[in-house]
Amino acid sequence: MERRYRLQGRSNFIAIREQGRRWVHQQIILAGRPNDLERTRCGFVVSGKLGGAVVRNRIRRRLREAVRLGFPHMAPGWDLLWIARRPILEADFHAVAAAVEKVLRQANLWLSR
Fold first, then answer.
1. Which burial class, exposed, middle or buried, applies to 113 when counting CB atoms under 10 A from its CB (0-12, 13-18, 19+)?
2. For residues 25-60, b (16+ Cβ closer than 10 Å) or e, as one string?
3. Cα separation of the two ends of the chain
4. N or C, fewer C-beta in 10 Å, the chain?
């Protein structure tokens, strides 16, 4: 994912969690709030409770790739925080990609093109 589409900084993550809306799926939680930009930025959170560094990085890579593939269908102008949940450990990539699409549709952020 290109740098301009990444959400960085602890303060941004905290602001989204406190002020944004949440949409829950079995594998992921999507928290988001509108921004004043013409693009959507994404941040990813994988808790240490899910496993060691290797496991967390694998989950983060899968989730980031699933979001990257769905990026052309996302509504612009949002800051999104993707939070992995424990069931994502057993999910393959296709299940993660389906979960990303489902939670975006639930949030009305999926644009059919």
1. exposed
2. bebbbbbbbebeeeebbbbbbbeeebeeeeebeebb
3. 21
4. C
Neighbours of 96 (CB within 10 A): 20
pLDDT tens digit sequence for 67-93: 999 999 999 999 999 999 999 999 999
Alpha-carbon distance 76 to 110, whole Å? 10
**How many CA atoms are closer than 13 Å to the CA of 108, on its beta-carbon side?**
3
| Reported confidence tier of residue 113, pLDDT bands at 50, 70, 90 | low
Name 15's Cβ contacts closer than 8 Å, sequence gap at least 6. Answer: 33
Instruction: Report how far Cα 53 is from the mean position of its chain's Cα atoms.
Output: 19
Q: Give the containing element (helix H, strand E) for 63.
A: helix 53-70
> Quick check: helix, strand or coil at residue 40?
coil
Which residues, 6 or more positions from 98, have their beta carbon under 8 angstroms from its beta carbon? none
The residues facing 74 across adjacent strands are 110
